[in-house]
Design a protein that fits this description.
- This protein is 50% helix and 17% strand.
- It is of the alpha/beta class and 252 residues long.
- Strands 1, 2, 3, 4, 5 and 6 form a 6-stranded mixed β-sheet that branches.
- Helix 8 packs antiparallel against helix 9.
- The longest helix is centred in the first third of the chain and has 24 residues.
Length: 252
């Protein structure tokens, strides 16, 4: 009986050793294929900084603080109509400026703008100065080449407070021309304008105040102003989109 048990144990041990050897000789499973790399966006990128304030006569200080942000945000939105370029979102740019402790109360020099542009992957950076002489408006815009820190062009657009939005598409068009960016095709331009009709000045002011309050972290007041802009002009697509980005469904 003992011999039989010993023999059985020997056979079991031999089988275990054989199985282990077979497992060691088995080829390793091939590594899982690497996930394909996401395609890089090769389009030229442009970022619009909030405008600085020059001579301003006729409105309250907070209105001008709102307008220098609102007009820059509207210009950014206008540039997005062109699928041939990549436009850096204002929220991304603002977040980076805060992280770098670069307030927009003081003007940024070309070298600093170039450094910021490289961090966000922009090809061009835009800044400008907003003027209001009792309803007569002007924006002096400067476009910088991020790689060289060179000012490519300085352009001015003028308008009236009672037709405030009129300056925005003209400024966006000049920026694209000055940077030799691909022009917006006529059909695409018409489709964009149908989806984004020009809002009246009262709606633009409400939108600009909403941008100001959002920058200050006051989301409730920002949403109130977005609602006001939409009450004045229900077709204000950019105001509705910005509102819902701030608070999902707030302006559905």
């Amino acid at each position: 009986m003992q011999r039989i048990t010993t023999a059985a144990l020997s056979l079991a041990l031999a089988a275990l050793v054989s199985a282990n050897a077979t497992a060691q000789q088995a080829p390793a499973a091939p590594p899982a294929p690497a996930a394909p790399a996401a395609p890089q966006d090769g389009r030229p990128a442009i970022a619009v900084l909030d405008f600085d304030l020059g001579l301003t006569l006729g409105q309250q200080h907070d209105d001008y603080e709102a307008l220098r942000r609102g007009l820059a945000a509207l210009t950014t939105g206008e540039l997005t109509a062109n699928p041939a370029i990549r436009v850096v979102e204002r929220t991304q740019l603002q977040q980076l400026l805060q992280e770098q402790n670069l307030g927009r109360e003081g003007r940024l020099d070309p070298q600093t703008m170039s450094r910021i542009g490289k961090i966000i992957g922009a090809t061009y950076m835009v800044t400008g100065t907003f003027f209001d002489n009792r309803g007569s408006l002007r924006v002096d815009a400067r476009i910088f080449n991020v790689e060289t820190s060179e000012i490519l062009r300085t352009q001015s657009v003028t308008g009236r407070m009672d037709n405030l939005y009129d300056m925005v598409p003209r400024l966006a068009g000049q920026l694209m021309r000055d940077a030799n960016l691909p022009p917006l095709e006529r059909r695409a331009a018409n489709e964009f304008r149908q989806a984004n009709p020009a809002p009246p000045t009262q709606a633009v002011m409400a939108y600009s105040r909403a941008v100001l309050y959002a920058d200050r972290g006051d989301s409730n007041r920002a949403v109130e102003q977005y609602h006001r802009a939409l009450q004045i002009f229900p077709s204000y697509t950019q105001a509705r989109t910005a509102c819902n980005s701030l608070q999902a469904g707030a302006c559905s």
